[in-house]
Amino acid sequence: MKKTNKEILGTTCALVTAIISGFAIPLNKVFVVDLDPIVFTAIRALIVGAIFLVISYTFQRHNFKGGITRPPWHYLIIIGFIGGCLAFMLYFSGLQLTTVGRAAFIHKTLPIWVTMFAYFLLREYIHRKQVFAMLIMLVGVFMILVTPTSFITFLLPVTMGDMLCLLATILWALEAIVARHAMLKNYHHFFISFGRMLFGSIFLFGAIVLLGRVPALLAIQPYQFVNILISSVVLFGYVFFWYASIHYIKVSKAATLLLLAPVISLLAGVFLLGESAQIMQLVGSALILLGAYFVVHIKSRVITGI
Q1: CA end-to-end span of the chain, whole Å?
Q2: Cα torsion 166, 269, 21, 45: sign
């Protein structure tokens, strides 16, 4: 595939990922699942991981488009443990010790860490325009997430919960870097997706046993399982397009485009749920869209000559 086509395809996949991520928040308000978050995530990850296992096996068996290269197991285990289990548990532990707004904004700093790691570890070329656009988008995200009533909470001292959420975000960034590194070795993203979800679910089920959450797992009701399936479909779409995007374009660019998600969530809340949007949120949305415009037109390159 030509570089231009790869750039277009990867950028499109990143934009679709952001759209899915943005719709996930209002969808979760409709399909609320009253479950332990670890149990909920473990079940979803198992379902999605099993789907990717079938897809990977089918494509490899039929040798579509030259076949699929499976990465070594240690790549899959590392990605599954870091991103699918440890980061998730740290984030939700931190969420119990800080405010939702602060945790959400800390998570949105993901592109910063991905960009730093990508520059030093993957030798991605980071244009100044990309850094400027990312900062503009982060300001926009802040304006969307922070309301006048919640602004005071952002002035409070840093808590242990904030640090746990930050550590989780850094681990998710490292997961993306390991995944991109594996793809640069010509390992197919279907296998990476399978490893992230299935091994992540295995580690999470282990945590359920160790933390004594088995009763919560056994107490799932039929209506809850239906909602879990709906949420799993959304998660499958997110994982599919996210790993496809970093397969074709540099991971720093793909991660930055994920900052479009709050704009999608805001618009979905207004048009689907009848929520109101404040002027500051609309200005923040405009900043995010402006930054995304610049990022979309940046080409994926690696550093040479150093």
Answers
A1: 28
A2: positive
pLDDT digit string, tens, across residues 24-60: 877 776 665 678 889 999 999 999 999 999 998 887 7
* Position 301, amino acid: R
DSSP state letters, 86-150: IHHHHHHHHHTTS-HHHHHHHHTTHHHHHHHHHHHHS-B---HHHHHHHHHHHHHHHHHH--TTT
Query: Full-prediction pTM beyond 0.70?
Result: yes
Burial of 50 (0-12, 13-18, 19+ CB in 10 A): middle
Q: At what angle do helices 261-272 and 279-296 cross, to 10 degrees?
A: 140
- One-letter amino acid identity for 219? A
Name the one residue in this structure whose structure tokens are 């989780």.
168
Each residue's pLDDT tens digit, 265-304: 999 989 888 888 899 999 999 999 999 999 999 998 877 5
